[in-house]
Design a protein that fits this description.
About 40% of the residues lie in helices and about 15% in strands. By secondary structure, it is α/β, with parallel strands linked by helices. It binds pyridoxal-5'-phosphate (PLP).
């Protein structure tokens, strides 16, 4: 659908992208200066596979400040994005047929990565029909083959921030059962309504070395640096050693220029993260208000990220068909809920401009809601709805 949208855009159609998962802000100045300084030395070589020592130190300081835990440099591995970090973890942990519990709605890559590592994804969907995972569903799904559970909160695609009670319970459960808990924290500071990011280590007495918790993070979302491709994992040293072997036989180190940029972002002025968070929170408020005016849409108010996952099943139960209709009739890009294990829903991103959000939702309303006026202007064309 992204390709179709791009073709439409190239033809000059006024496409609105509510599908994209990246903030619009420019990279932080400290990231740019640090990478430019590195580049200008002309001395651009391999770094150690697990990352430049000074970046690993910056990640350790970030972890201390945000998670109240001090990792040893041997607990840290830098990768080319959080995505590669997650793949390294799964490839390291899984033997063929090991099961990994994935909580629906989930980020699309988790089940595919588990399968690539010859594991079996076990999808756990909240039995109550909601979007927040429930411990009793997870306990029921866990068995002797369960090697790991992946938790992503704030969650892509729902925007939900899981309760501290749930996080405490799942940490306790995993530590007790010896199941690895992969915490994908890529959105951890993008939380709203005065909430604080929940540091998962708070719920265990164990040190990183003895804990089952593996934390994944990166600069893509919080610093708006998706194109820099730097992420990391914090894990016990024995796992980091194997992950380093995996990475050394695939991509080796992440680019040193981009590692320098990541170090600049982590050690530079941090107000950029708060300013991004405030912008996105405002966008969240706007999209919620716009969606409230829709009679048939049910939506859980996101507590973080830049996504929401409204239930459009009153209009169309087939989310792929729905997203196709929205693109072809209303020129709005969305992502079908089916891709995240939530049929009947559609993921909308509010990372873009306020204008795109308000206009995008107005177009969706026109395309789906028979109670809305059946004429609309898209660009300079007046369109008439004739399919409801
Ligand atoms: N985890 C989640 C939940 C994501 O949504 C994304 C990107 O969309 C990633 C990980 C990947 O992040 P990165 O850009 O650091 O590879």
């Amino acid at each position: 659908m992204n390709e179709e949208a791009e073709l439409l855009r190239q033809r000059g159609e006024p496409v609105i992208h509510l599908g994209i998962g990246e903030p619009k802000n420019k990279a932080p100045i400290n990231a740019i200066l640090n990478s430019a300084a590195k580049l200008s030395t002309g001395d651009i070589k391999y770094s150690p596979t697990d990352g430049i020592p000074s970046l690993k130190k910056a990640i350790a300081t970030y972890t201390e400040e945000n998670y109240d835990k001090i990792p040893d440099p041997d607990n840290v591995i830098v990768s080319s994005g959080a995505k590669q970090a997650i793949f390294n973890v799964l490839y390291t942990l899984l033997n063929p047929q090991d099961e990994v519990i994935i909580l629906a709605p989930y980020w699309v890559s988790y089940p595919e990565m588990v399968k690539m590592a010859l594991g079996v994804p076990v999808i756990v969907t909240p039995e109550d029909g909601g979007l927040h995972p429930r411990m009793k569903d997870i306990v029921q799904a866990a068995g002797s083959a369960t090697k790991a559970i992946i938790v992503n909160s704030p969650n892509n695609p729902s925007g939900l921030v899981f309760s501290d009670e749930f996080m405490g319970e799942i940490v306790e459960f995993c530590e007790k059962k010896g199941i690895y808990l992969i915490i994908d924290d890529i959105y951890h500071k993008l939380v709203f309504d005065g909430r604080r990011p929940t540091p998962c280590y708070e719920f265990t007495d164990k040190e990183i070395e003895d804990s089952k918790i593996i934390v994944i993070n990166g600069i893509s979302k919080l610093y708006g640096m998706t194109g820099f491709r730097i992420g990391w994992a914090i894990a016990p040293e024995r796992l980091v050693r194997v992950m380093t072997n995996v990475q050394s036989q695939t991509t080796a180190c992440a680019s040193v220029i981009l590692q320098a940029a990541a170090e600049g972002a982590l050690t530079g002025i941090q107000s950029i993260v708060e300013s991004l968070r405030l912008t996105i929170e405002n966008n969240r408020n706007i999209i919620m208000k716009e969606l409230e005016s829709f009679n048939g849409v049910k939506v859980t108010r996101p507590g973080g990220t830049f996504y929401c996952l409204p239930d459009f099943s009153a209009y169309n139960k087939d989310s792929v068909g729905l997203s196709e209709l929205l693109l072809r009739k209303a020129l709005v890009v969305t992502v079908p809920g089916k891709e995240f294990g939530m049929e009947g829903h559609v993921r909308l991103s509010y990372a873009g401009s306020v204008k795109d959000i308000t206009e995008g939702i107005a177009r969706i309303k026109w395309a789906l809601d028979p109670d809305s006026p059946n004429e609309i202007y898209i660009g300079n064309k007046k369109l008439v709805r004739d399919w409801l």
